[in-house]
Write a structure and sequence with these properties.
The complex is a heterodimer. By secondary structure, chain A is α/β, with parallel strands linked by helices. Chain A has nine helices and ten strands. Classes of the chains: A alpha/beta, B mainly alpha. At the A-B interface, strand 6 and helix 4 of A face helix 6 of B.
Chain lengths: 260, 271
């Protein structure tokens, strides 16, 4: 996907030797990864290999047992401990099931952070909410509740909620899980558009090879708790790594063709 | 093969091991509840913009409990009079008013309403927060720099602590009226309704009502903070939510009774 980048305001993300264990089972076994500012990286891996776990460490929801995560030059544990107003940049996460608050309307969900931190008057919050909903093509849904929306719409509202924070880093956990190919393409295009227009660093975990190839700048293949390969989409078809080859074969892309 | 199977079997911790594990679990739960209470109270000054959520919780906890609370209090007041009148037939039915008045204000009103709140609104709180936890809604709040304790727990705590004393007064009134109704219509009771209220006013002090209100406040805190703590520690899927909900209600009941005893002891010590 060719991109015309207008902005470059993302942050650098560095993971070195990140390990995480649950109930005696080591999920992450020393993850090393560097994501350059403003780039869009897909983390490709099989289900249950720790892709989502890696994102939770990066956003600071969980602490790694070992290793170091530095975002925008700040160790993540220090970033998490900072008061919201003093954080030098913002990180947003789009969860796999959207994680919208069921008791709030679309507009209330999207404007939640702005409202809770009370930095803007209500009229400006409404305006900011309307703007990001327009960006995800959901204008007019402000007063609906999450239960009134389809799965694809809920995902887009979750993306709008992330955008409303005006983040320098956006993490997506399986953004196209459970979506049909048309909605998958729409979400993929939206993520690419956010990269092109906002310049935020973005990372998404997926097992959808065509999506990763179509929108990502780099693809990290996570296998057995480690980053096995870190490739450009162009390099992917030539990979000799067994898991990557298996992914390409399963997606019908062994000859290097295909879209989202 | 057989030796492998035996080797894989987890070691039985024995009676002492299970007892020790149970004590540690109990201490951990109490610690989590106490920590959450401190965090929720510390968030009270920052909860001023949450008036809308507070009112919503007050309606759910208070207003929605009124019909069932009335029914319960009415029948308990009536049963108290019927039971006591029968026992007192040979002695004097003059004390029917004080019995109902003191029982309702000091004990039955607060405990009944607290159990009702814990069973009804408390279980709903645990289930709601449990679902929000397992579906990452609580984590979503954290990533948005919104404190889940201030956003979810503090409004419930304030609403419950405010609503329960009001529900106690309401229960006291309905229970006393229920007792009066039986005094008025039961041909086996020789005491007049006027006599019932006069004797009651002679015996029931303002301090008795205050004890009931203090209990209402403390039980209101318990009936909200315990379910919130269990909701936020939920793990697993629907089964985890069900387990948290059940545990929240059981633990609320236990703590309400423990604090009931402590408040009664303290009130006798102070007077």
């Amino acid at each position: 996907m060719t991109a015309t980048r207008h902005v470059e305001r993302g942050v650098r993300v560095e993971l070195s030797g990140v390990r995480k264990r649950y109930d005696g089972h080591e999920v992450l076994r020393g993850v090393d990864l560097v994501v350059e500012p403003g780039s869009l990286v897909a983390i490709l891996g099989q289900s249950g290999t720790g892709k989502s776990v890696a994102l939770r460490q990066i956003v600071g929801l969980e602490r790694p047992d070992a290793g170091r995560i530095v975002v925008g030059g700040v160790p993540i544990e220090r970033y998490v401990a900072m008061p919201p107003g003093e954080k030098p940049f913002r990180i947003a996460m789009v969860f796999q099931n959207a994680a919208l608050l069921a008791s709030l309307t679309v507009a209330e969900n999207v404007g939640l952070r702005l409202r809770e931190h009370g930095t803007l008057p209500p009229r400006e919050i409404r305006e900011a909410t309307r703007r990001v909903l327009e960006q995800v093509e959901l204008a007019g849904t402000e007063d609906k509740y999450p239960t009134e929306l389809s799965g694809g719409m809920r995902k887009r509202v979750a993306i709008a909620r992330a955008l409303a924070v005006d983040p320098e880093l956006i993490l997506y956990d399986e953004p196209t899980a459970d979506l049909d190919p048309i909605l998958t393409e729409q979400i993929g295009s939206l993520i690419a558009r956010i990269r092109d227009t906002r310049g935020a660093t973005q990372m998404f975990v997926t097992h959808n090879v065509p999506l990763a190839r179509a929108v990502a700048d780099r693809i990290a293949v996570l296998d057995q708790g480690r980053i096995a390969e870190y490739l450009t989409p162009e390099e992917l078809p030539a990979s000799r790594y067994p898991l990557t080859q298996e992914f390409l074969r399963a997606a019908g892309l062994e000859h290097g063709s295909g879209g989202v | 093969m057989a030796s492998e199977a035996v080797g894989a079997r987890p070691r039985d911790p024995g009676i002492l091991g299970r007892l020790g594990g149970g004590i540690l679990d109990t201490l951990q739960i109490l610690g989590e509840v106490a920590t959450l209470l401190v965090a929720a109270v510390r968030a009270v000054p920052r909860s001023r913009p949450d008036r809308q959520r507070l009112v919503a919780q007050l309606v759910r906890i208070g207003t929605d409990t009124l019909p069932i609370g009335a029914l319960l209090s009415l029948f308990v007041g009536m049963v108290l009079v019927v039971q006591s009148a029968d026992q007192l037939r040979e002695v004097s039915q003059e004390v029917l008013g004080p019995i109902v008045g003191l029982a309702m204000t000091k004990e039955l009103g607060p405990v009944m309403m607290a159990f009702l709140l814990a069973g009804r609104a408390g279980s709903a709180m645990a289930a709601e927060l449990g679902s929000m936890t397992i579906y990452d809604e609580v984590n979503a709040l954290r990533t948005l720099d919104v404190d889940p304790v201030r956003f979810l727990v503090t409004p419930r705590l304030i609403a419950s602590a405010l609503a329960l004393p009001m529900l106690v007064l309401y229960s006291d009134f309905i229970g006393v009226v229920g007792g009066a109704a039986i005094v008025g219509i039961d041909p086996g009771i020789t005491l007049s309704v006027r006599g019932y209220f006069e004797r009651m006013l002679e015996w029931v002090d303002f301090s008795d009502i205050v004890v009931g209100l203090v209990k209402g406040f403390v039980f209101g805190v318990i009936a909200s903070i315990v379910p919130c703590a269990f909701g936020l520690r939920t793990r697993g899927g629907a089964e985890g939510v069900a387990s948290s909900t059940t545990s929240a209600v059981v633990w609320s009941f236990i703590l309400i009774l423990v604090f009931d005893f402590l408040i009664v002891r303290l009130s006798f010590t102070l007077t």
